[in-house]
Design a protein that fits this description.
The chain is mainly β. It contains two helices and 35 strands. It has a ten-stranded antiparallel beta sheet. The chain starts with a helix and ends with a strand.
Length: 473
């Protein structure tokens, strides 16, 4: 008899222990259903975000605050308005409710969009833009693609992430035709080194690259380039021994000194990348960035706007690794310098002007549209049309036709900003190419997220192109 009682007691204790362990995973679902008066066992629960959702405690190295979330990794991640976090696979959005599969929840919860603060999408490669034109919408969104023309009152943009988008002219602040910027210098060293003046070092062109072959001392080569406004720089550096040491100085004013007088410099030394601000031949490091490991070859890109002072630096990637805004920016420069104090090679140097829109250009006019040309001229009037080769403008001195290749940007007449729609589904999509799309979310499936925008109507954005969704209400 005692043995039978002991076995029964053990069995009851085991059942109690199992229920205790499982309770935290189901309590939130139970509370949610009771609060909504829905205690049916049929179908997934609709979570009331005021009740706590059980998520396992973070392990060592796991972010514990929303600020530290970062990329979602291999799954999507939700940040709820009560600061709960849920990671899993998004199944879809329909009728203002999101469904997600989570391994720690016994059923797939359906979460109202008003209970969600952010959606972080799983890691994916950034989409390559078709063309380099940009449409700046009145609400702050930026769409990148290839402007194909105007159809009625719509500006037609071909994008890599949403196909063809027609942006209403009245909802457009400006657009930038930056696929044809002014080339100040381009040199792949296939024709020798005639563009450069060598001040110190042993410089030779070999195998289509410019080599500096001395292993010590400051060696530099300079070229005369008048720089002002928005200027972009691209170049490659290659080291024979996996230890890069050198860089490029831009907006320089003194070619007799390797530092270049006044200006800026991007300098790499082993694993560390420096951004310099130079003044009277003295360098001052304003920002530094550490590579994960020493680099043997780096493809650099720098964008500098002398009006705003913003400098962005890319290094072997599609995202800038350095951003810096100079409070007292240099307005012009006359020289660009390649410099090193070790054996290193340079290749594919390119300098272009007019590849971006300055703050002064964005301000526009209260009376008319403004067309900015690549030679810094501007013409006011009313934009009436555009196609692949020409831009049409009505001006006070008649109708004129402009060669599209010579147009840098068009800024539309200032208008009152439209009020944002009031909806719990109002959100801003942040894309992997840094574009943003704002509107009311309508649906999500395996392929696209569809959002109603005030500037272009419904847009279906490829899911793989989305980095995160930020809810605005």
């Amino acid at each position: 008899m005692m043995k039978r009682v002991s076995r029964a007691a053990c069995l009851l204790a085991l059942l109690w222990l199992t229920a205790s362990l499982c309770a935290p995973q189901v309590i939130a679902l139970d509370q949610a259903r009771r609060q909504r008066g829905n205690w049916s066992d049929q179908g997934p629960a609709v979570l009331n975000i005021s009740s706590r959702i059980y998520v396992p405690a973070p392990t060592a190295g796991t972010p514990s605050t929303a600020k530290d979330l970062g990329p979602a990794g291999k799954q999507e991640r939700l940040l709820l308005v009560n600061m709960d976090m849920i990671t899993g696979d998004l199944k879809g959005i329909k009728d203002g409710v999101l469904t997600i599969a989570n391994q720690y929840l016994l059923q797939e919860p359906r979460i109202p969009l008003e209970g969600i603060k952010r959606i972080y999408f799983r890691d994916a490669a950034a989409a390559s833009p078709r063309g380099g034109d940009q449409v700046h919408c009145a609400g702050g969104d930026i769409l990148t693609g290839a402007l194909t023309g105007m159809e009625g009152e719509a500006i037609v943009l071909e994008t890599s992430y949403a196909g063809t988008v027609g942006v209403r002219k009245e909802a457009t602040e400006a657009f930038l035709l930056n696929s044809e910027s002014i080339v100040l210098l381009t040199d792949d060293f296939s024709a020798g080194s005639g563009l450069w003046t060598f001040k110190q070092g042993q410089w030779k062109v070999r195998d289509g690259q410019l080599h500096q072959e001395q292993s010590s001392g400051q060696r530099y080569a300079t070229t005369s380039v008048e720089q002002a406004g928005h200027v972009s720089y691209e170049w490659e550096m290659i080291s024979p021994d996996s230890y890069l040491h050198g860089g490029l100085l831009f907006f320089g004013t003194d070619p007799s000194n390797w530092v270049g007088g006044n200006g800026y410099g991007v300098w790499v030394e082993g694993r560390t990348l420096y951004l310099w601000r130079t003044q009277q031949n003295n360098t001052n490091t304003v920002v530094r960035y550490n590579f994960p490991e020493a680099q043997k070859k780096v493809k650099f890109r720098v964008e500098y706007d002398s009006e705003s002072g913003l400098i962005e630096v890319w290094a072997n990637g599609d995202k800038p690794v350095i951003k810096y805004k100079d409070p007292a920016p240099w307005k012009s420069g006359s020289h660009v310098t390649l410099c090193t104090n070790r054996r290193v090679s340079f290749d594919n140097v390119s300098i272009r002007m007019g590849s971006g829109m300055s703050d002064a250009m964005r301000r526009g006019s209260e009376k008319s549209d403004l067309v900015h040309l690549v030679n810094k001229d501007r013409i006011s009037g009313t934009l009436t049309g555009m196609d692949a080769g020409q831009v049409y403008l009505d001006t006070v001195y008649g109708k004129i036709t402009l060669d599209r290749k010579r147009v840098l940007a068009i800024v539309f007449k200032k208008k009152e900003a439209a009020a944002a729609p009031e909806s719990a589904s109002l959100a801003r999509l942040v894309l992997r190419n840094t574009n943003t799309v704002t509107g009311v979310i309508r649906s999500l499936d395996d392929q696209v997220l569809t959002v109603d925008t005030p500037s272009a109507g419904p847009i279906s954005v490829e899911r793989s192109a989305i980095k995160e969704v930020v809810f605005l209400q």
